[in-house]
Design brief:
CATH topology of the largest domain: Pectate Lyase C-like
Largest sheet: 17 strands, mixed
Structural class: mainly beta
Radius of gyration: 19 Å
Helix content: 10-25%
């Protein structure tokens, strides 16, 4: 079924407008982006995407929905190599406007970039950012779960009742403008995490990771090992 759907996208779902391609999709609540793609998330009453190609072969772009997840990636590895060169970033790219009805999971890997200028409202939101990806979101959720690793960068704005963070391997999280009532953090291997917490903070840091928090939580549980640091600022 998945392969049949992908073929249908290739032959019947594309509508080209001024060098762009529109793809109408079945509904999804999760996004998984991989490689040198740049996504802008936009709330809508219908799920679809508009892809802007520049010096990238359309056949190298995969856009499909499987098991409720929209998957966007570039198949050809040389684009990932070129993406590390600023000159190529300006001349070879894929930009995607992603129109969604609702979202509860967002993943970016291998240099993907994902942004939202509108609040993403969800009861439970999960964000996974790894392998040099950059994600910048506005989120309003009851429960927010974050996982970052391998030099990725995540910026969060908005608010949540509970924030759960797992960060490692040089990842950077900027969430000091993401108002959380309770926060649980585990950071290691040089990760840097900045948060704002109102009521309760539970943190564990090790192997050179640093956690910075603002706010004046009533309860604080702090564990530091092997060069890990926790600081109020």
């Amino acid at each position: 079924m998945k392969s049949i759907f992908a073929v249908l996208l290739l032959f019947t779902g594309f509508i080209s407008v001024q060098g762009q391609t529109r793809i109408n999709l079945e509904n999804y609540t999760s996004i998984d982006a991989f490689g040198a793609v740049s996504l802008e998330l936009i709330r809508s009453d219908k799920p679809y995407i508009i892809i802007d190609y520049n010096n990238v072969d359309k056949e190298d772009m995969v856009a499909e929905v499987a098991n409720g997840t929209l998957k966007l990636k570039i198949k050809n590895r040389h684009y990932m190599d070129d993406w590390s060169n600023n000159k190529h970033k300006k001349t070879e790219y894929v930009r995607v406007k992603v129109y969604y009805v609702s979202l509860d999971e967002i993943e970016g890997h291998a240099g993907a970039k994902i942004t939202s200028s509108q609040p993403i409202i969800s009861k439970r939101m999960s964000v996974d950012c790894s392998m040099g990806s950059e994600i910048d979101l506005i989120v309003v959720a009851e429960h927010t779960k974050i996982h970052t690793s391998m030099g990725s960068e995540l910026t969060l704005n908005g608010k949540t009742d509970h924030l759960d963070i797992r960060s490692s391997m040089g990842a950077n999280i900027q969430a000091e403008n993401f108002k959380a009532q309770t926060v649980d953090i585990s950071a290691s291997m040089g990760a840097i995490v900045r948060v704002h917490v109102e009521k309760e903070l539970d943190v564990s840091t090790s192997l050179g990771a640093e956690i910075f928090y603002s706010g004046d939580p009533d309860k604080r549980h702090v564990s530091k090992n092997l060069g890990g640091e926790v600081k109020n600022h």
